[in-house]
Amino acid sequence: MRIVLGVAGGIAAYKAAHVLRLLSEAGHDVRVVPTRAALEFVGRATWEALSGHPVTPEVFEDVPEVAHVRLGREADLVVVAPATADLLARAASGRADDLLAATLLTATCPVLMAPAMHTEMWQHPATRANVATLRERGVHVLDPDSGRLTGADSGPGRLPEPDAVAAAALALVDAEGKPRTRDLVGRRVVVSAGGTREPLDPVRFLGNRSSGRQGVALARTALARGADVTLVAANLTVRPPAGVRVVPVETTAELADAVRAAAADADVVVMAAAVADFRPAADAAHKIKKQADGSAPPLALVQNPDVLAGLVAEPARTDGGRQVVVGFAAETGDADGDVLHHGRAKARRKGADLLAVNAVGGGQGFGTEGNAVTVLDAAGEVVASVEGSKDAVADGLWDAVVSRLHR
């Protein structure tokens, strides 16, 4: 895939070198187009050595190739990191006063911009208006992270980490490099991810093996398909995707409250988190000590509320509008039936619009790069079967969700 990496003149330009490396190592042909100011932070030699291509900010170099038109026209993806307040303003107003601005004007492929600037610049009405204009035109503009900025300043305006920028950019295209469909534009989506933890004492907890990878993939691909995404994140072991609203939680009770609050105006709720079925009857105020006689202290458990069944029985959407509710069922076969048998029973019992059933254990499911799910409707009938990377599985599930939204 041919990618143009635009780099604007901010201190975060050094992070773009890592973005370049990640995209190149993923097998893509990356052409770097810096602004003149960007070369004050990271020199031309660095970009040329890492990309293997000549680098210039000028439209009057390599004139016979008509680079100011060709680069944008031939690109499969354009990524700008960092995108400064100045570049956002020039892009929003349609300026073409350097090679990067001209490339943005001629690009017909997906474009992702990752802003980075001081908090006051990001929050200024002019910048907010420029971002809104670009988003209305179909440009994917990430929200910056909050954190340490230049000097002692801290606040929103920090460039997301390079791996998050690269992942968000690559999510805009499918496995063949084609632009991902934008069929979730205008939709509000809530995704839960990770695994809940129920405290035993101040040190220990009951938990599960979920990393949150599948839920994060669902959030990332929903964002790429145009949705406004809230991710309710329970103890993730992977980084949340850049550009989504993250609500961190720990326990099942916290997750249930966060999901219901976020789902009040949501079109879709996807419960991908591995939610604990049980919690300790009592949370010890002090660390539980070993017994002198070598015996183990008794552990009494109580059942947690069923968050998914609760959403189905009492929809969280406050305006009474239609809400598609999707559940996940991590199953293992046993003497009573195989994974699909248990999944069908759960689909009929839960009543969710869709239930994604996947086998876990033995190297499947939790913590792996790939996944395989069978999607069932509320009657337990198979709607779809998807296998592959977790992003591919996420896309397959969103296809099934979109068909429900159109009904």
From TrEMBL:
GO terms for molecular function: FMN binding; metal ion binding; phosphopantothenate--cysteine ligase activity; phosphopantothenoylcysteine decarboxylase activity. Its cofactor is FMN; Mg(2+). It catalyses: N-[(R)-4-phosphopantothenoyl]-L-cysteine + H(+) = (R)-4'-phosphopantetheine + CO2; (R)-4'-phosphopantothenate + L-cysteine + CTP = N-[(R)-4-phosphopantothenoyl]-L-cysteine + CMP + diphosphate + H(+). Residues 184-402 form the DNA/pantothenate metabolism flavoprotein C-terminal domain. It holds the Pfam family Flavoprotein. It comes from the Bacteria. One of its GO terms (cellular component) is phosphopantothenoylcysteine decarboxylase complex. The keyword Ligase applies. Signal peptide: none annotated. Residues 1-188 are annotated as: Phosphopantothenoylcysteine decarboxylase. GO terms for biological process: coenzyme A biosynthetic process; pantothenate catabolic process. Residues 189-407 are annotated as: Phosphopantothenate--cysteine ligase. Binds 1 FMN per subunit. Residues 1-169 form the Flavoprotein domain. InterPro entries: CoaB-like_sf (IPR035929), CoaBC (IPR005252), DNA/pantothenate-metab_flavo_C (IPR007085), Flavin_trans-like (IPR036551), Flavoprotein (IPR003382). Its EC number is 4.1.1.36, 6.3.2.5. Keywords: Decarboxylase, Flavoprotein, FMN, Ligase, Lyase, Magnesium, Metal-binding, Multifunctional enzyme. CTP binds at D277, K287, P305, D306, V307, L308, F328, K346, K350. Pathway: Cofactor biosynthesis; coenzyme A biosynthesis; CoA from (R)-pantothenate: step 3/5; Cofactor biosynthesis; coenzyme A biosynthesis; CoA from (R)-pantothenate: step 2/5. In the C-terminal section; belongs to the PPC synthetase family. NCBIfam families: coaBC_dfp. Catalyzes two steps in the biosynthesis of coenzyme A. In the first step cysteine is conjugated to 4'-phosphopantothenate to form 4-phosphopantothenoylcysteine, in the latter compound is decarboxylated to form 4'-phosphopantotheine. This is Coenzyme A biosynthesis bifunctional protein CoaBC. The gene is coaBC.
